[in-house]
TrEMBL record:
Lineage: Bacteria, Katanobacteria
Keywords: Membrane, Transmembrane, Transmembrane helix
Provenance organism: candidate division WWE3 bacterium RIFCSPLOWO2_01_FULL_39_13
This protein's record includes keyword Glycoprotein: no
Protein name: M23ase beta-sheet core domain-containing protein
Classification via Pfam families: Peptidase_M23
CDD domains xref list: M23_peptidase
GO molecular function, one term: metalloendopeptidase activity
InterPro entries the UniProt entry points to: Cell_wall_metabolism_enzyme, Dup_hybrid_motif, M23ase_b-sheet_dom
Ranges of residues in domain M23ase beta-sheet core: 159-239
Length: 255
């Protein structure tokens, strides 16, 4: 009898594999609930509800999968989405605005404040040959650190004991972490033809979409990303048609 049943099962699998699997599942479920032998006709009555249940589970699984893919893509695959998602709640408490900055859409001062470069030393220049020789790539901006005059005279430093980086012009901010891990703030002016970039923050006071005025505190100088020590990478780009051109930030600083 068992041999005949096995032969019948093999024939059923060959003729209708899906139906055989469904019938087997129904038998397992029904026998688990009603532990007495039931005829094939009785078991067959359960096929419709079971198929409906399985179809519902498939649809639910697909919907959950699509939802998960959408969330995953937004958070992890966007160039800045993941880091913005993680850091958006970590924006620090900002110091007050530096009123010594001239309100303009074009930068004219260095990001540490003071007159000209009085508070600042350049540790790597724009397109610096020594930088290219050491790191194997062009330097797209200038690297700045505060000098002795900054520590002696900066009211911001005396009050906060932090090296605060300020916006050098007005515009809209974007915060992201670059491909090398550098915490970055970028400001695009309202006319859309100039942007400044500030890299290596250890703490930020702005988030993407913030409207910024010159002298607004952007964050605290740090050494995140591609950096051999704490400093500020300061960069200016101007729009030329559909391209952005790098320019020397020192040519914008007025003395």
């Amino acid at each position: 009898m068992k041999i005949l049943t096995a032969v019948k099962n093999i024939r059923d699998v060959k003729n209708d594999p899906f139906g055989f699997i469904i019938d087997s599942l129904i038998k397992i479920i029904v026998n688990a609930v009603i532990p007495i032998p039931l005829s094939g006709d009785v078991i067959a009555r359960f096929k419709g509800p079971v198929l409906g249940f399985l179809a519902s589970m498939v649809i639910l699984t697909v919907m959950l999968f699509v939802t998960f893919i959408g969330i995953f893509s937004t958070i992890f695959l966007s160039p800045t989405g993941f880091f913005q998602f993680v850091t958006s709640s970590l924006v620090g408490s900002a110091p007050s605005t530096n009123e010594g900055f001239t309100q303009s859409a074009i930068p004219s001062q260095n990001p540490f404040g003071g007159q000209g470069m009085s508070y600042t030393s350049v540790t790597a220049g724009f397109m610096d040959p020594a930088y290219l020789l050491q790191f194997g790539k062009n330097h797209s901006g200038i690297d700045l650190v505060p000098n002795a005059a900054y520590y002696a005279n900066s009211a911001t430093y005396k009050q906060n004991k932090k090296i605060i980086v300020y916006a050098t012009h007005s515009g809209t901010a974007a915060f992201y972490i670059d491909e090398e891990g550098g915490e970055t703030v970028e400001i695009l002016n309202d006319s859309g033809d100039l942007k400044t970039k500030y890299i290596h923050f250890k703490d930020e006071y702005v988030k993407t979409g913030d409207k910024i005025k010159a002298g607004a505190p952007l964050g605290e100088m740090g050494g995140t990303g591609f950096a051999t020590g704490e400093h500020l990478h300061y960069e200016i780009q101007i729009k030329d048609g559909n391209k952005w051109l790098l320019v020397n930030p020192l040519s914008y600083i007025k003395y």
